Amino acid sequence: MSLTLPALHVMGDITVNKGSVLGVRTIDDFELVFFPTGSRTVYENDRGEFLLDRPGIVFTCPGEPHRYRFDPLVPTRHLYVHFEHAAFRETFCRQDDSPGECQDWSVIAGGSLVPSLLQQMLKIVHVKPRGWQRRGAILLLSVLEEWQAIDEDDSLSSMNLPAPIIKALDYMEQHLHHQITIEEIAGSSGWTHEHFTRMFVRWIGIPPQKALLERRLRRAEQLLIQAERTIKQIAYDVGFADEHYFSRMFKRTRGVTAVEFRDRFADPLFRHLAMTEEESAYPLNRHFVALNQERT
Predict the structure, then answer these.
(1) Cβ pair 271, 2 in contact under 8 A
(2) According to the model, what pLDDT value does residue 168 have?
(3) Is the pTM of this model over 0.90?
(4) Is residue 72 a contact partner of residue 19, using CB atoms and an 8 Å limit?
(5) CA-based angle 188:75:229, to the nearest 5?
(6) How far from each other are the two terminal CA atoms of the chain, in whole angstroms?
(7) Burial tier of 145 (Cβ tally within 10 Å: 0-12, 13-18, 19+)
């Protein structure tokens, strides 16, 4: 029995600048977008607005007007794939080819296979080993099966951050231009310093000091791209008292100096993108095209 596979069109792993807006737009194919972390990003269509405050998937049908308003405070990473699939045309599109009822926004619980499947698909399309188109399509089919099997109620209950952690993260964002301490951040949460540190690592995965540094450097990235300030001024703007320490930490974590980073993203084409230090088996902030789908 022959398996009908989806046809891959375009995919990528992109991080966009804070405050970016995409749309209003319509597309000719299906689009699945995975957001690995919750944020203040909002997805809009004719059925309403959806706050993407948890890890999850946005699904858009062909011909459906929609818009993204990305997080106004921090860059937003998302993995996406455009594809065509005959079975989905029958399920989600009406006879006149206008959009049917899509599932819009689905929360992804911890332990889901979706992130690893998407990343493996991107790796295969980037490397292009033997049979890469069929393998990529099979992986996408697996992603679609996982997505359609989501139990949203379980997902919603499992992904909530504790209120003290949310308060602490908000406190960090609001005080990046100050030289705040971890004790002050812990105080904003209402927990003791020791308990806060343990719980922060448990829920966020890294110590609060590293999270604070990363948020400072991400803010610096945006200023380097968008603002006409000196490196010294930007260092002070993101809470560093010492310009040289800022420069060392930027080079250590980003692999380039602040000046090199600014020069790299001087082209207006890149002004909506933001760097990420995450290691990947494929290039980040790139679009991969795979239009010639193999048939079976």
Answers:
(1) no
(2) 93
(3) no
(4) yes
(5) 90
(6) 11
(7) exposed
